[in-house]
Design a protein that fits this description.
By secondary structure, this protein is mainly alpha-helical. 71% of the residues lie in helices and 2% in strands.
């Protein structure tokens, strides 16, 4: 949030129009002093501004609206200067005004300050700030702001990977969203999805798929909610990754597409990342659908990040091993530096090498392993590993002569049927590629 945003919202937070025409001189003097100080603040005269706001505090008798507004400006100004110790002293003074102003006024100001301060990179300071805020909110009994501040603190523990402290907060937040019978309170669906979103992210980082599945299923049962699209984007993305790990490509594609749409609606950069994961899932599933037919996706077809993944998919479907590896090497940052994509690259390489291997050995009864290695552009031990997998899976009928480095294939009728089945599989991949290319207009 820019300084200008924080300055301009002042008049929107408080539109105090005193209908009392007999406003006393003390109130007028405080108002004038306040706006003079605010003007100095806008002009970059911080010492003069802070001095003016202090005069407002000195001029008031009982705590009131002008003192509250002055402290608000002092807190923001000191925070922008990274004078955290002084800022916290003023913030504690501000918290003493929560019972003086209306609940609506205090909630608006506190929400803006919490959001503003949450941008600080100093995690130790943020911990102290959130703890101080939560202590004050317990007394004011503002449940909505209490929940929001706790979520901010929970996010802090997530970023610091302090999962024990994070889990303690999530349990407390979950209890606040349950009925007397101990069930999820569907009336608090939006809050439930917020905490489930963070819980799901934690289980994803910890690679605890069992708990991830449980929390994800609970989140999907929440219907009476209007969450921010970013929240649903996180839930669907983690769900898609979970399905990918389970090799459930169809469910993964659906979740990742939903995540993409949510991130796109929120204007979040992770939409591109999810689109890359979606293309990855399509390759692994060998699904025929063209994702670029969806109107939400079309605008990103020529994005450099997406183009790299799309080129990779084209090479994959054409069984062009050399081109596939070339694209990977030329797009290290866009493809290989993503740890999630990198996990599945070996699966893609194994698939494409297996397909080319089958096509290579089909015409022969005997073929040298070095020849296959040259065709696949991989070491001979890797060729043997692929051959062993095909033999064990009964995809081919053959034996390996390791002494002479030769593969001997059985060309009996039974074996021929197997090769024909494999040939049909390869033909299907070719048809899939042609269908996708024609739909894309390439």
């Amino acid at each position: 949030m820019s300084d200008g945003d924080m300055m301009d919202d002042e008049d929107y937070d408080f539109d105090y129009e005193d209908s009392d025409q007999d406003q006393d001189d003390g109130q007028v003097d405080m108002e004038n002093e306040y706006y003079t100080a605010k003007g100095n603040l806008q002009d970059g005269k911080l010492p003069e501004a802070l001095e003016g706001f202090q005069k407002v505090l000195d001029m008031q008798g009982d705590k009131g609206e002008w003192g509250f507004k002055a402290l608000k400006q002092m807190v923001k100004a000191l925070f922008r200067q990274s004078r955290y110790s002084e800022m916290m002293d003023r913030y504690k003074e501000l918290l003493n005004y929560l019972r003086v102003v209306t609940k609506n006024q205090s909630e608006k100001v506190m929400t803006k300050i919490v959001d503003f301060v949450s941008g600080s990179p100093d995690m130790d300071f943020l911990e102290k700030f959130y703890d101080t805020t939560l202590s004050a909110l317990k007394e004011s009994q503002n449940e909505r702001l209490w929940f929001k501040t706790n979520m901010k603190l929970a996010k802090l523990w997530f970023d610091k990977r302090e999962f024990h402290r994070l889990q303690r907060i999530l349990r407390e937040l979950h209890r606040s969203c349950m009925t007397d019978a101990g069930q999820d309170d569907q009336k608090k669906g939006t809050q439930l999805l917020e905490l489930y979103s963070l819980d799901i992210q934690m289980h994803t980082v910890k690679k605890d798929n069992k708990k991830l599945r449980g929390t994800y299923d609970k989140a999907m049962k929440v219907k009476s909610a209007i969450p921010h699209p970013l929240i649903m984007g996180v839930i669907h993305e983690c769900g898609g990754k979970m399905h990918m790990q389970e090799r459930d490509w169809a469910s993964a594609s659906k979740c990742l597409f939903d995540a993409f749409k949510n991130y796109d609606e929120a204007g979040n950069h992770k939409r591109i990342q999810c689109l890359k994961y979606l293309i990855l899932g399509k390759m692994l599933s060998m699904e025929e659908a063209n994702i670029f037919e969806a109107p939400e996706v079309k605008p990103y077809k020529n994005d450099p990040e997406i183009t790299a993944m799309n080129d990779l998919m084209t090479a994959y479907q054409r069984n062009e091993i050399s081109n596939f590896e070339k694209i990977l090497n030329q797009n290290q940052q866009r493809i290989m530096e993503d740890p999630f994509i990198r996990v599945y690259i070996q699966d893609l390489l194994k698939n494409i090498r297996t397909q080319v291997l089958v096509q290579t050995i089909k015409p022969y009864t005997r073929i040298k392993i070095p020849s296959i290695a040259k065709e696949l552009n991989i070491p001979e031990p890797d060729v043997e590993s692929l051959l062993v997998s095909l033999i064990l899976d009964k995809a081919i009928v053959a034996r390996i002569d390791q002494v002479n480095r030769i593969v001997i294939l059985d060309k009996t009728d039974e074996a021929t049927n197997k090769y024909e089945a494999l040939d049909q599989w390869c033909d299907k991949l070719g048809q899939l590629h042609n269908t996708v290319v024609s739909k894309m207009g390439v």
